[in-house]
Specification:
This protein is 28% helix and 25% strand. With 130 residues, it is α/β, with parallel strands linked by helices. It has a single domain, classed as Rossmann fold, CATH 3.40.50.
Length: 130
């Protein structure tokens, strides 16, 4: 089974400048794939891939369902979708809606889904290597 080094980052809409600053420091030959989940309103357009691509030397995009994972790439979760990580690929799915806390009713909570799928994937890989 092919494995990939993966970095996941989650931020609120106020974290865009910090993400741009971080991406500007990453090497063009980053030996990992970077997954970014930004909490934005579900109906808002996402310009984050273009902003991150202009900020640094890595290619950034909203992945399509079943996109192969490649190192040196930034994968940004599309608005109103769940981004799940499976061995060697990214899944983009419509998932169940989560009810955010009252103070965050206009935001989605997709970071949990990336983390759960990554943890689940890591656990399966460890069990298979025994």
């Amino acid at each position: 089974m092919a494995t990939h080094d993966i970095i996941t980052i989650g931020a609120s809409a106020g974290g865009v400048e910090a993400l741009r600053a971080l991406v500007s420091l990453l090497p063009a030959e980053l030996p990992a794939a970077l997954f970014v989940v930004l909490h934005i309103p579900q109906d808002a357009p996402s310009l984050l891939p273009a902003l991150l691509q202009r900020a640094g030397s890595l290619s950034a995009r909203h992945p399509a369902d079943n996109t192969p994972i490649e190192t040196g790439r930034i994968y940004v979760a599309p608005p109103n979708r769940h981004m799940l990580l499976e061995p060697g690929r990214v899944r983009i799915v419509h998932g169940p809606k989560e009810e955010p806390p009252p103070a965050r009713r206009r935001s989605s909570l997709p970071l949990r889904h990336v983390g759960v799928s990554l943890a689940s994937r890591r656990g399966r890989a460890q069990r298979q290597s025994r």
